[in-house]
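Technical annex B. To support the medicinal chemistry partners, we prepared a structural model of the target in complex with biotin, based solely on the information shown next.
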Amino acid sequence: MLPAASCLGAWGTISPLMDRSAPISQTDPAAWTGAANAARRVGRRIEHHASIGSTNDRAREVLRQPGSDGLAIVADLQTAGRGRRGRSWLSPPGANLMVSVPLRTRLDPHAAGLLGIAAALAVRDACASVAPEAGLAIRWPNDVVAPDGAKVAGLLLETALEDGWLVEGVIGIGINANWRRAEMPAEIAARATSLTEMVGTSVDRVALLGTLLGALDREITALEAGYSPVARFRALSWLDGRRVELDLGGTLVEGRVGGIGDDGSLLLDGPDGRTAYTVGEVVRVLDAATAGAVA
Ligand code: BTN
């Protein structure tokens, strides 16, 4: 069974500006099944909730049931959505895409460390299918960002390991689809954007989910077969060359990002040379053009 959340990173805090009792959008629940594909492992079936605490919690629950591997749990509203590092994930009802996928697998310790990288590539590809001209990139470890660093999507990966092998996991994904910046609480609008903001039209969340589940299916199949996602991640890495502050859980380190290691780690060039970090959160970008807090 999965232990308590083992995630890194951050998004925001609950804002009084968010009215969680607002009416839920009228998305026809049956429409979500249009994103399912019985020929695939990930997203064979869709479980839709008009309102739920957290789709990740529901995914952890269903992992105990047989046949739950690859089910996609989607919600129009989360009342207790979780981000990395124990923070809240906010989303107005019916606006965005929030989905969790429970996985039963067997990934060796090296591949286990790359699951977040592979999932981030799938999320980025799905977002780019809607906004191909937007220049979407990935900010280590797994945020999808616009060229100015504004966050479009985030990923909360919770895993259970046995002797270093990853045996169970929940991939939780939040994509800002139809949330206009003008409607976001100020503290979120300062560092986030959405697909609709980039393309100027409303985004079909069911079609986006179908694309996302197809991409996740491909990435996970490739990872299980021993293919590394790192080269493709490197080509999309937003942090490369930037001077950043990395929070190691209370300790802050500063350096210039030298790239991504073969194990998916962040390579940071500091006064004492290059160090590879497998965990941590980039909390600040210090270069003038994109300076500012990111977490
Ligand atoms: C982050 O960037 O901090 C990760 C955000 C992950 C949010 C998603 S929304 C669907 C799933 N359910 C949750 O409670 N969290 C994830």
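Notes passed to the chemistry partners:
The longest helix spans residues 205-224.
The radius of gyration is 18 Å.
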